[in-house]
Records
---
Amino acid sequence: MHIAFKQAGAMAAIELTQEPLRRPRLAFATGAVIGVLGGLIGLGGAEFRLPVLIAFFALAAHQAVRINLLVSLVTLAASAVARFGFVAFPDLGTHAAEIVAVAAGSIVAAWFGAGLLSRISPAKLMLLIAVLLFAIGGLLGFEAAFGDQMAGALVETLPLRIATGIGAGVGIGLVSSLLGVAGGELIIPTMLFVFGMDIRTAGTASLLISIPTVLVGVLRHYRGGAYRSQQALATLVLPMAVGSVIGAILGAALLPLVPVGSIKIALALILVASAFKLARKAG
């Protein structure tokens, strides 16, 4: 057993120090394209970024998740500046309890989930990523097809809303840690369909929950030795983050001109196809 722990520790060290391929232009370009798609569908795009990190930059699953989380944090920060700098802050008073509940569950789960990541073998993590991407793709397609037909809060009483919020937050925090995503693809539908928020309030709540959740995951990974490669930061994280921010702004500008429902369905199919590819690779 002692040998097994030593081998696991050696594997974690390799994962933390693995260098990506030096493709800063490709990093910027893929970040921009994913940013545009994210801006169009109202998400950060991290679920699409993760397969790209694995396929085009030769990152193993563990390091791809950590890099994805860091780029997600930068993109979220830029989104928050844009949203709160140019748009009036909505009144969240009537939904404060559930927002705090979801955030609390998400932050705690993100801390433990980030620690759990290093204990999962590469093959199992790849399979888990495939399953989660498949689920997110299905959720995105369902929202595109039936989202307009669903409205109103499913949970009415305050104690139940708080309990439901904490439970949902735990799931969101775990997905954030294990995929390196902000969690908006789960937070926004939860706020819309479970707690009955309007889309603008749900988007703001998503940022308020996502930023501390992702920050906790990044700090946990940093404490574990991640993000110390200057090459990875300079040639991958920085150009991809800049591209993501620019793309997100462009995607938001194109929003009135593009049929978002059709794009969501197309992207859901892309996520499902990516999930099957990663599952085969894991096998």
---
Amino acid sequence: MKLGISTASFFTKVLTENCFSALRDMNVHTKEVFLSSSSEYEKGFVDALASRLNGDMTVHSVHALSNQFEGELFSQSRRVRDDAEAVFRKICYAGNALGAKYYTFHGPLSLKRSPPSVDVGSIAERFNELADIARTYGVIIALENVHYCRFKTPEIIREVLKNCPDLAATVDVKHSVFAGYDPIKFIDAVEDRLVTLHVTDVDRDENTFIPGRGKFNFEKFFKEIDKRGLDPTVLIEAYPKDYTYNEELADSYKHLKEIIENL
């Protein structure tokens, strides 16, 4: 398993265009690029960002502020879908320009506590269209489990992937716990479609910590994944409130790296 950090971990602390330097200082060379505002989706910004890679960094995936447009990609209104699709293409372009293979995707919001009813047939049809678009940019959609979005249970994720052969999967530890599931339930739901793990330490009271500061057993978790023959890229996606100094995040990275190297 490769280990890296999502630039989402620097949100409000370091501007996106300065995150690469921060990661270099931490000796981290694998990352997910989180584009956090509409101005960052524009070609000029993305191209300038790509010029900062300098060939020494690998961008595994791109991520966007999904509640700005991803739900609208499934709207019943053609105009709404088309407008959202124009933004979706910008993120796909960003993935291509940055050399990312995957686009971490949340999808429509679902703020009710009970699991939503999902018309898998129509959802799959639209996902297959979006996967075709992403493919033209050399990018694969990696559907993520997010507790406040529609695809928040292992059963729904499994059904969507079953009907969408070109989708990959991202499993997020904290969102699994927030939704009331052991993250391994999602691992077993997505099986060999797993390409990305988002990791943050979390407890049953939904408090989050940078890995190594809480009680989540990452060693056991990674061993379970390794036992299944899976090889995802592991990305620390911390909440900025959970640390003060970049050195703390660097120590968290070293902590997980040691665990992975000793599997």
---
Amino acid sequence: MLIEIILIVVGIAVVLWGADRFTDGASGLARRLKVSELVIGLTVVALGTSLPEFIVSFMSVLRGSGDMSVGNVVGSNIFNGLVVVGCSAILINLKVDKALLRRDIPLTLVASVLLLAFVASDNSLSRVEAVVLLAFFGIYSWVTYRVAMQDRRAAGEVKEETTPMPKLLLLIAVGIAALVVGGRVLVDNAAAVAREFHVSESVIGLTILAAGTSLPELVTSMVAARKGSEGLALGNALGSNIFNIAFVLGICGSVSPLTVTDITLVDWGMLVGSTLLLWLLAWTGKKLNRGEGTVLVCAYLAYLVWLLAR
């Protein structure tokens, strides 16, 4: 048990270090490519910080654990929408871009409802349904690409970046590697500790694995918020949620149909409800202040208490 606890601390340290490198590289890349930090957050950063979710969910599929695979994604998305965004807003008031309100939050909600509809019908995600999720991801990627091209035409609004491109790419690559390795060490050992207390796989997926694999999103968004990169902080959380559902479960379900038996209506309600709550709070004043961030975090804590009591 002592070794696992030491490795958990090491994993956290590696994730923190990687998030700082990754944020610097991604912010510089946005300026270098003359696109907004929001677009980079929704794409490069979201993909990088979603790698732990992909690794954990894919390995769970290979082990035949659909509950852990889907639970990891559902729990991670709830964590992203409530804790990642909430903690970032507590750290600094976040200005919410109009594009997030009109496009990215609604698309996140659509992805969540789509997954719920697929699984609720027969407690499984079939290969055909997984392909539909991948198609949704393709459409989302195309829309984001169009936005990036529009940003480049408005390049005058983005300040110049003097850091050489190879150094920026190296920072991103090193950051991603540290996030994945640190997140993996953290998750493996946290799950091992949880199993010592005989916690079910679905609850492990919804809590330990979800929080562990979302740690890169949490640290990256908080570091970005602290550095004033609000678009990067919010884009990372929302982009990761779409990646998790449409790409991660799309790939996993295409490899093998996922049977889901131990995720409750409350869990699904929190998945959809957390996005609705975030959308509602973001509309008020077109920003998320510290009080609203506290509401988001408290909502997650209440859900966590319910999970542990269950």
---
Amino acid sequence: MFYDLHMHSCLSPCAEDEMTPNNICNMALIKGLEVIAVTDHNSFRQLPAVDEAAKKAGIRLIYGAELESSEEVHMLSFFPTLEHTIAFQKWVDDHMPVIRNREDFFGHEWILNGDDEYTETEERLLLVSLDASLAECADAVHEYGGKCVLAHVLDRKNSVTQQLGFIPPDLAYDGLEIKSPDQKERVLKMHPWIKEDSVIWLCDSDAHRLIDISEAVNELPGQVLSVLAGREL
């Protein structure tokens, strides 16, 4: 199944305003994707609208968000149902500092409905670190019935290798996100304790613009994606 499991809606202040639920789902469909995940920063609150848009477009959706740990490491979290995300959002809220967003500097944080109509603005800045370590974030995701994937592990300042220097051997994660096949070889060479078949490897767009959503080039078996989704896709 062709997938892209890392993209941001207009709820994330770093994403363009055109990243609405229906625009995302329809662009993904045009590009030939079969499974997507919209992973806004530290928030699942756009997902009800994305779920509605995905059903209209006929594309499969995995419910997710991108968390930022106290070490400023990004981690994708995926859950089986919207109810799981609502429960876990309470955990996120309890661990997120209350800093007011500055739209003129960071961008809008818009929450829309299933028809891409504005409903409310998230007032808190979402581009913040939680007061929970990477290990604590991973443990919490699992406790709430989810799966976690370390995001862009060799890229950007918010990758685990940039922030910590390596992937901890005792960290409980389910997958690693890379940008190309050669990065997998680099990760394995850097971390001899990681076995290639012991984790799920994702290659996603991290799209903040519609044009950047992946084409139908990255493919995984449905049963593998179903493990991340926590349900049959």
